[in-house]
């Protein structure tokens, strides 16, 4: 699978600490540099048929459909791909006008992930999103009218502007719109964001963990009652609408990340990441040099990663793979740490897979990190 990071946004959302620029001055140079990177890395993922290509960001829908197509062409020119390859574009509601969708519907993009976040203006204003509540709804309907059935939307819960009643209405609206995939996250306060600044100055209150906990479990119960499967802590899908791309991450598959700040993984022990700086990225690629650094993961780091990723999913951690992969010393640590948690039913073993029962998923990261080797 290939991930392409588009490092541009119209404006900065108040909670976001991803890598992007709000200036489009160097957009053409960036696209050329990305195409160069695709070419220079064409021998990676050898002998693999690409199952998915994912445009994330930043805001991929800030590009025109022609620009998106030119990147897809470049990938498909150099990599072999499956005939039913999933090609996802993250898109913001304010970009999904008729012209954009008409052109995009003629492209190979066959899945949209829309950054809806909320159907309420108060939430969207606090988040400093570029769209309003009415665009949140109309963009989904328009995308469906143009034939995009494989749709995901992002929703954020636990905002200080929200409460359980508003959250219930958000979810009801989602069901009414017949969206088959939902990614939903608690609002978190990241360092150096406007949100952190407002909270530190007392302008708004912090998100309350207790509220977020209740809203998470309401979300899970409500969506399951409406035919969704809760397949990862933050992800819900109708049958046949799991994200192929993200599922591959969660199954430790190899991936290639193109663009500034994008990460890559060889499926075994090497992780690399591109520089998170647009100018430096462009400059390096202009000189035919990759803008990446890499590290070889120690056994301990591989173990921690396997635990963290696997325990967040419906599949859990495959104990046979774990036993085959790690040394006796690591396995002894593992057995020692899981025992009390199995006694407390915070962890269970089913079909030789270690899992967190769904009723504890809100605490999944904490439970997983208790098992880490530090
Ligand atoms: S659109 Fe996405 S990447 Fe851009 S600032 Fe907002 S949350 Fe961050």
From TrEMBL:
Q: Which CDD domains match?
A: Radical_SAM
Is Nucleotide-binding found in the keyword set?
A: no
Tree of life domain: Bacteria
Q: Which InterPro entries match?
A: Coproporphyrinogen-III_oxidase (IPR034505), Elp3/MiaA/NifB-like_rSAM (IPR006638), HemN_C (IPR010723), HemW-like (IPR004559), rSAM (IPR007197), rSAM_horseshoe (IPR023404), rSAM_sf (IPR058240)
Q: Pfam families under this entry?
A: HemN_C (PF06969), Radical_SAM (PF04055)
Keyword check for Membrane, yes or no: no
* Primary location class: cytoplasm
Compartments where found = Cytoplasm
| UniProtKB keywords | 4Fe-4S, Chaperone, Cytoplasm, Heme, Iron, Iron-sulfur, Metal-binding, S-adenosyl-L-methionine
Q: Where is the signal peptide?
A: none
* Domain Radical SAM core as annotated: residue spans: 1-229
Q: Which family does it belong to?
A: Belongs to the anaerobic coproporphyrinogen-III oxidase family. HemW subfamily.
Free-text function comment from the UniProt entry? Probably acts as a heme chaperone, transferring heme to an unknown acceptor. Binds one molecule of heme per monomer, possibly covalently. Binds 1 [4Fe-4S] cluster. The cluster is coordinated with 3 cysteines and an exchangeable S-adenosyl-L-methionine.
Cited PANTHER family: COPROPORPHYRINIGEN III OXIDASE, RADICAL S-ADENOSYL METHIONINE DOMAIN-CONTAINING PROTEIN 1, MITOCHONDRIAL
Please identify the protein, giving its name as recorded: Heme chaperone HemW
Which organism was this protein described from? Chryseobacterium oryctis
Query: What are the top taxonomic ranks of the organism?
Result: Bacteria, Pseudomonadati, Bacteroidota, Flavobacteriia, Flavobacteriales
Encoding gene, per UniProt annotation: hemW
